Amino acid sequence: MPVSGKTAVLVAGSWGTAIASVLADNGRDVLLWSRNRDQVREINEEHCNSRFLPEVLLSSRIRATDSMEEAVKDAEAVVVVAPSSAMRDIAGQLKPHLSPDSLLIHATKGFEAGSLKRMSEVLAEELTSYDSNRLVVLSGPSHAEEVIRQCPTTVVVASLDKEAAEQAQDLLINSYFRVYTNPDVIGVEVGGALKNIIALGAGLSDGLDFGDNAKAALLTRGLAEIARLGTAMGASPLTFAGLAGIGDLVVTCTSRHSRNWRAGSMLAQGHSLEEVLTRMGMVVEGVKTTQAAYQLSRRYEISMPITEQLYHVLFDGKNPKTAVEHLMGRGPRHETEEIADDTQNGWLR
Ligand SMILES: NC(=O)c1ccc[n+]([C@@H]2O[C@H](COP(=O)([O-])OP(=O)(O)OC[C@H]3O[C@@H](n4cnc5c(N)ncnc54)[C@H](O)[C@@H]3O)[C@@H](O)[C@H]2O)c1
Ligand SMILES: O=P(O)(O)OC[C@H](O)CO
Predict the structure, then answer these.
(1) SUPFAM superfamilies given for it (predicted)?
(2) Is the ipTM of this complex over 0.95?
(3) Same domain, yes or no, for 145 and 27?
């Protein structure tokens, strides 16, 4: 059954506001939840969200509230667009108000620090009376700054439940926002989270003027790392050839809108990590994700050399040039040796 009634979006950051705009353009009345009263007032009275998407006039179909109950009560669809660090807290606030019949979508790209859980795992743990099989993940190459201008964008919605994925597709799809479905929740979440690590590396590489060859190498070998860890965690390798894999990797490593790329290029200019994060003033998921992926690579015994070097640059003060020397000086390898298996033909077998 298509979703026809009220929709709620939590929270009113860049991506949440852009998703609310897509829903409003699709004729839905949207309640956008924010903990910030000034932001709520600005959205309701001036129809803008000046901190995250300046100079954009929002649809009058979008109304904001700082009451979780008001936002979520009787909503047929709830879209959670929180930073990964806030997901558990927000899920806890959502729990008493969420109807088991609502369609629940999350669009967050990251892991929970410490537990290393995927966002759908965190939601499933907190929302115990919600059928976690019906959870939908939204991901893919999509910068808020372009979606809000109605630039042609393609994304993917993943759910174990085909009907839930199709409901989400129907809810969000329009002439500038094309939505594909995919059953691979793990792959879509892992691809969306891990590309941010490589984007930080791409920003560093560009900031140090390492050139286009280096960036192409980072993207390609980065994708190999993403696919290796993702498949070890249970994802389908095909997902990484899609929108949540290579698609998102390309946009985040090349777009001027990418916060992760910008953070990497600021690090290359010599700013400290703390300084970079303060100056950005928006969530840079790649930093915590580098730590999580480094720990996951050890848990699953997966080789992730780019992630490992970036971890040392971010958290141990390693010089990025030395990190590149270590990457380039690794022993000779066959390009696909880590994914070689019995199905492969030829001399590698
Ligand atoms: N910006 C994009 O273009 C984009 C696109 C796709 C996916 N995403 C993903 O969406 C997620 C959110 O990113 P964003 O770009 O919207 O971030 P943002 O920095 O623009 O906004 C984050 C918002 O979350 C709020 N917040 C933080 N902690 C909170 C808490 N504990 N309770 C309530 N509110 C809290 C902040 O006040 C802020 O309004 C990230 O995982 C990001 O990777 C972003
Ligand atoms: O701006 P970034 O680097 O957080 O990336 C945002 C989106 O994930 C791009 O799809």
Answers:
(1) 6-phosphogluconate dehydrogenase C-terminal domain-like, NAD(P)-binding Rossmann-fold domains
(2) yes
(3) yes
Q: Is residue 1 part of a domain?
A: no
195 tagged catalytic: yes
Compute the distance between CA of residue 40 and CA of residue 95 in angstroms, rounded to an integer: 22
Which one of 183, 214, 249 terminates a domain?
183
Catalytic choice (6, 195, 215, 288): 195
How many domains is the chain partitioned into structurally? 2
pLDDT 10s digits, 215-261:
999 999 999 999 999 999 999 999 999 999 999 999 999 999 999 99
In terms of DSSP H, where are the helices of 64-118? 68-72, 87-94
By most ligand atoms within 8 Å of CB, the mutation choice from 156, 257, 283 for ligand 2 is: 257
Does the residue 94 lie in any domain? yes
Q: Which atom of ligand 1 is nearest to the CA of 282?
A: 19
Which atom of ligand 1 is least distant from the CA of 145?
A: 3
Return d(Cα 169, Cα 52) in angstroms, integer: 26
State in Å: Cα 217 to ligand 1 middle.
29
Task: Assess whether 233 and 252 both reside in one domain.
Answer: yes
Q: What is the CATH number of the domain that holds 254?
A: 1.10.1040.10
* d(CA 252, ligand 2 centre) in Å: 6
Please give the C-alpha separations between residue 246 and each of 174, 186, 314, 324, 337, in angstroms, as whole numbers. 23, 15, 24, 22, 20
pTM of the model: 0.96
Would you say the CB of residue 259 lies under 6 angstroms from ligand 2? yes
Same domain for 93 and 46? yes
Q: What does the DSSP 8-state code read for residue 244?
A: I
In a shared domain, residues 135 and 64: yes
